Amino acid sequence: MWVKICANTNLADAHLAATLHADAVGFVFAPSTRQMTAAAVGAITPLLPAELDKIGVFHSQDAEEILATVREAGLTGVQLHRAYLPSLVVELRKALPKEEGRVRILQTVHWDVAATESESASQPERFAREIRQIAENGLVDAILVDSSTKSGSGGTGVSFNWKRAAQAIADAQIPIVVAGGLRPTNVAEAVETLCPWGVDVASGVEAEPGIKDPEKVRLFLANAKATAEEAQTGRVSRCAPVELPA
Asked: Is the pLDDT of residue 235 over 70?
């Protein structure tokens, strides 16, 4: 189970995540109360373990801006937290070839938790179609599923409908990372219901906006990884291990 502790704003929190055996830390470069600069993150990443993924979260459509931030901030991954834009992903992939294996690309797909009743009826089909399209293009390494509301498309602290999304996620031919409203108290249920390759949390492990709560981080990681281990040993029998492409 790949676990990302996202929206870090300081070295202490990122180091805490690494010490507690997180697989990745995230830094937000999109407009947010937790937004960081490339220079600030670039001062943090060299002090973290080399094997820890350092993921930048972007809403920008400007490939050059993203690539400049990747270099200055010392990132090992790019999370595109906006609607899928093939031309942007193509440009990034040219500069970040898969075979180099240094910088991965994650594309966010949103589940609209504020959809009307009529929109909600067609949402599973739309969601599955979007995942298929991204997977078939073969340009990204993983898809991150997050909730969107009328007020935002990330960091909402709101869970999407896991049961309605489960089939599309199970059928996905690409690793899936689940985010959106996850907390230490519900991450095990999310893993059991969706069998994702990874999970991602930000506000669910905070003491206050931008500051992590060490006990919440510890519990989230413990609960996520313990449930994933149960899945791999057959206690959650319908979950099958999924490998991220090298």
From this structure: no
28-51 pLDDT, tens digit per residue, is: 999 999 999 999 999 999 999 999
pLDDT in tens, 187-198: 999 999 999 999
Domain ranges of the chain: 2-232
* CA nearest neighbour of 80 among 36, 129, 28: 28
Which of 7, 50, 4 lies closest to 32 in space, CA to CA? 7
Task: Write the CB contacts of 183 (distance below 8 Å, at least 6 apart in sequence).
Answer: 201, 204, 205, 216, 220
Domain 2-232, what fold?
TIM Barrel (3.20.20)
Q: Which residue has the tokens 């270099």?
A: 71
Helices (H), 30-98: 38-44, 63-73, 86-95
146 within 8 A of 190, measured Cβ to Cβ? no
Q: How far is CA 2 from CA 14, 92, 136, 212, 228, in A?
A: 16, 23, 23, 19, 9
CA–CA separation, 168 and 31 (whole Å): 30
CA torsion 98-17-180-28 (nearest 10°) is -70
Yes or no: say if 23 and 228 are a contact pair by the CB < 8 Å rule: no
pLDDT in tens, 52-109: 999 999 999 999 999 999 999 999 999 999 999 999 999 999 999 876 667 999 999 9
Dihedral, CA atoms, 220, 57, 75, 194, nearest 10 degrees? 40
Check if the beta carbon of residue 210 is closer than 8 Å to that of residue 194. Answer: no
